[in-house]
Design goal:
homodimer; 440 residues; alpha/beta; FAD/NAD(P)-binding domain; six-stranded mixed sheet; four-stranded parallel sheet; 13 helices; 25 strands
Chain lengths: 440, 440
């Protein structure tokens, strides 16, 4: 007889946590899903918010709404700060909660390679707020350039540096190039947005390094065609308000730029540390929890870690990639395992099924690696569109996103080009610029 | 022969400024439109952003985009701080600019009746940031109530006070009532969102006081049906973090509430003061500039003030209402006047043509006053929908808004229910609440 009051607590409503909650819908358990935010965020499209194509609400689904019909789930807005594994309690920033099984799925964030001071100068793209802040900086740079009279300063405003040549960096670079070439074409009177200089900086020898060589090469060729400078084997060594220092092979360049975006490095959520303290579990260098083949923590068979926070290395030796697929499959696995255990049954170890990787590079082009087949170009781009559209949680969002993509495609427009947040005025560096040029 | 280098500077890209710029498209002038924001905001629908129906970008159109094909307009992101009327210069926070004609259209904001300290406790609805902040507070109140164990505290979280019974207050109250009754119906497990207590506080004897009696009565009856308490002849005399003091007639009540929204009072933009200093023009009590019959400032025939910042009292003795229609008509008038003057021709004084007023009260109901006909109910609501949809500047926005309205109508959902901004955790007052209710 299953235990009717078995309480499963899930920390984090991302891909892993949401899938675990959903897959426990018929299990004889009570589920409590805790998240610091009241929505599930579809991160793969976050760069489209940062570049003005989509609105935040297009890619964010209220967790309560997604789970409102699932009566065995309670959603609570709360932040876990520690785990008392011995007493099976989660410590919250404002209370605590007992569990029978715990699924920790609080993800990861970016990592500034020992330079936390760069975060303010070079924002990364993880949250909705990051996306609107990046959108703000990108648009503001063009506005400031339009009002600038000094050519060197204007050029610095039109120089954009993206750090990290993974999918996020590549997608941002492609979108930014299109904004400069197409979207803003008719918008300015003194600058030509096409003069924008976009540099994608990658530490390794090629961008999209987890993909096969041939797709990296395709992506790089497409970016070059869009006017993006791809600097491989290059490292950012310093970031200042008006310049970035980059080591390219054995020479060092200082590039005048006012806009730097960060898309490199992975740092696990601080709950990894908390778990290590509570259970003695080992962490890897990125702070991820090294889990057992069933995604649990050694010595605590009811405590699971999934998704970006987990280092699962029981398949091929290397950790599984930190992508949505990993988190979703682990969430589903752990839900199944909990249900079967309550029925007194076991489960084989978790096995990741690689469904492939893809990245888009602006309009009409993407690269797709399905393992058995690899290709890039227009057809890959259609597949990318379809997969991402169908993965949005809400039907409503799919229709809205489809309409906006269609509209943007036909008109080359991006309607969500809003500079929001704190007032950007006076524009940085304007005071010295003196009297207005348009002063007739 | 028109002067080809006549420079018209417009301050503010709201309804007045945008219409003036547009109507100067064939005039022999250069136009510079300055705004602190990079977008035109369709304020009449701002309450729908605050209540989660629409996204900010649905009702905000980038100014550059709206005016991109109009070659005689330059849009600049800038903030005017003063006017040097004698030398015909606008002083910016970061520079200055000469003009031949100046149109000041920087609008108005809310006014806290001598209690500026209330602004933090009771945000008003003027900007996109206000709308997302109000959305945040409304949604957070339900989240906090769900986690609250003490009934009195829970009730305070579910008590919402709206100050001001004008169209904004009425529309907010109606939308909030529907959120509580319909949208969130299935979303919570411990609270019943229908227990929400919504109080609309109005100082005068009836809400929508500028409308005919019969429409005020209709609106009030509809609000009552939605469960909103309308307190007329009532004044807020104090606002604290957990309570509001309200004088109703001759008795005073202290209402425990964690969410107060402000929709009362009008305070002209600070540029009114700056203009008074520069030109000696008189201001009214709300800080609005008392303009001549041609919307200019006495002694400065090339300096115009339009829209919410202007007090135009040459028609019927009372100032014209601070609505979009007034601003749009004045913008068009001044554009025409400037053009005709350059051709050596005159213009009769400005005449406001009242196209009517309307307000919506939740789903299926609005009140419409067209002067020659007054009615409320479903048909009025359809007219309200149509007029507002058609007034959106961008075709693209019309389609998106239409879809979202249709979707919400059918499903009773509101998809933009995102709590964004600074972390709300730990929830206020949670620390004392001790251990979680859902704890085993």
């Amino acid at each position: 007889m299953p235990h009717p009051s078995h309480h499963v607590v899930i920390l984090g409503g991302g891909f892993g946590g949401l899938h675990a909650a959903h897959d426990l819908r018929r299990a004889p358990v009570r589920v409590t899903l805790l998240d610091r935010r009241n929505f599930h965020l579809f991160q793969p499209l976050l760069y489209q918010v940062a570049t003005g194509t989509l609105s935040p609400s297009n890619i964010a689904a209220p967790l309560r709404d997604v789970l409102r019909r699932q009566k065995n789930v309670t959603v609570l807005l709360a932040e876990a700060t520690a785990i008392d594994a011995g007493n099976r309690r989660v410590i919250l920033s404002d209370g605590s909660m007992a569990y029978d099984s715990l699924i920790v799925a609080t993800g990861a964030t970016h990592h500034y390679f020992g330079h936390p001071e760069w975060e303010k100068l070079a924002p990364a793209l993880k949250t909705i707020e990051d996306a609107t802040e990046i959108r703000r900086r990108l648009l503001l740079a063009f506005e400031a350039a339009e009002r600038e009279t000094d050519p060197a300063r204007m050029h610095a405003w039109l120089t954009f540096i993206l750090v990290g040549g993974g999918p996020t960096g590549v997608e941002l670079a492609g979108a930014l190039a299109e904004i400069a070439r197409d979207t803003l074409r008719h918008d300015f009177r003194t600058i030509n947005p096409r003069d924008a200089h976009i540099i994608l900086v990658e530490g390794l020898a090629r961008i999209l390094s987890v993909y096969p060589d041939i797709l990296s090469a395709k992506a790089q060729a497409k970016l070059a065609k869009l006017g993006v400078d791809v600097w491989t084997n290059s490292m950012v060594t310093d970031i200042q308000r008006e310049s970035v220092t980059i080591r390219r092979g054995d020479k060092t360049e200082v590039v005048a730029s006012r806009t730097v975006l960060w898309a490199a490095g992975v740092q696990a959520s601080p709950l990894g540390e908390a778990l290590a303290k509570a259970t003695g579990v080992a962490l890897d260098r990125a702070g991820r929890v090294i889990v057992l083949p069933d995604c649990s923590v050694p010595g605590f068979p009811n405590l699971f870690v999934i998704g970006d926070l987990a280092n699962f290395s029981h398949q091929g030796g290397k950790p599984l990639p930190g992508v949505a697929q990993t988190a979703m499959q682990q969430g589903a696995y752990v839900a199944r395992l909990i249900e079967r255990r309550l029925r007194g049954k076991g489960m084989p170890p978790f096995r990741y099924k690689d469904l492939g990787n893809m990245a888009t590079i602006g309009r009409n082009c993407a690269v797709v690696d399905l393992g058995w087949i690899r290709f890039g170009g227009f057809f890959a781009w259609l597949i990318w569109l379809f997969v991402h559209l169908m993965s949005l949680v809400q039907f409503h969002s799919r229709v809205l996103v489809l309409f906006q993509w269609g509209w943007n495609y036909v008109t080359h427009n991006r309607s969500s080009r809003l500079i929001t947040g704190p007032s950007p005025l006076p524009l940085p560096g304007r005071a010295e610029a003196g009297v207005e040029r348009s002063d007739g």
